[in-house]
Design brief:
Number of domains: 1
Strand content: 25-35%
CATH class: Mainly Beta
CATH architecture: Roll
Order of helices and strands: EHEEEEEHEEHHE
Largest sheet: 9 strands, mixed
Mean pLDDT: 94
CATH superfamily: Electron Transport, Fmn-binding Protein, Chain A
Helix content: 25-40%
Distance between the termini: 12 Å
Structural class: alpha+beta
Radius of gyration: 14 Å
Number of helices: 4
Shape: globular
Low-confidence stretches: none
Length: about 150
């Protein structure tokens, strides 16, 4: 991912507004959202090749960041999740810190504990899972050593 490339923010109005405030304030505004911590995730579009950015609630597990591909319980995975499955190298911003990470779907063995972690942060994830027959993925973002 190149610094010079244009990044396209989520087309969802309130998400785009959240991202804009986060970016413009270098994470001073937007890191805390509705009482929880959020990060900005930038993926490479699997079809377009363009950089796509969205804001997501996160948790921590050791040195990794944990996010949930809930899409509010929709029957289809969010586009950002489909993108990172194809292109797992992502960019992350947490507050003012920006780094590259490798994204992977949590294994069946890891998921129960990570799901409990994330529902302790945002209890609505349980409700979202009840709304759909889709198994909502939990994603582990592992920061890359070079940054």
């Amino acid at each position: 991912m190149s610094v010079q490339e244009e990044v396209f923010d989520s087309p969802v109005g309130w998400v785009a507004q959240h991202i804009r405030g986060y970016v413009e304030s270098e994470g001073e505004k937007g890191h805390r959202w509705r009482g929880v911590n959020t990060l900005l995730l930038t993926t490479r579009g699997r079809k377009s090749g363009k950089l796509r950015r969205t804001g997501l609630i996160y948790g921590r597990d050791g040195g990794s960041y944990i996010i949930v591909a809930s899409k509010g319980g929709a029957d289809k995975h969010p586009e950002w999740y489909l993108n990172l499955v194809v292109n797992p190298e992502v960019e992350v911003q947490v507050g003012g810190d920006k780094f590259r990470a490798r994204a992977r779907t949590a294994s069946a063995e890891e998921k129960p504990a990570l799901w409990r972690l994330m529902t302790s942060i945002w209890p609505d994830y349980d409700r979202y899972q009840e709304k759909t027959t889709r198994e909502i993925p939990v994603v582990v973002l592992e920061p890359l050593a070079d940054g």
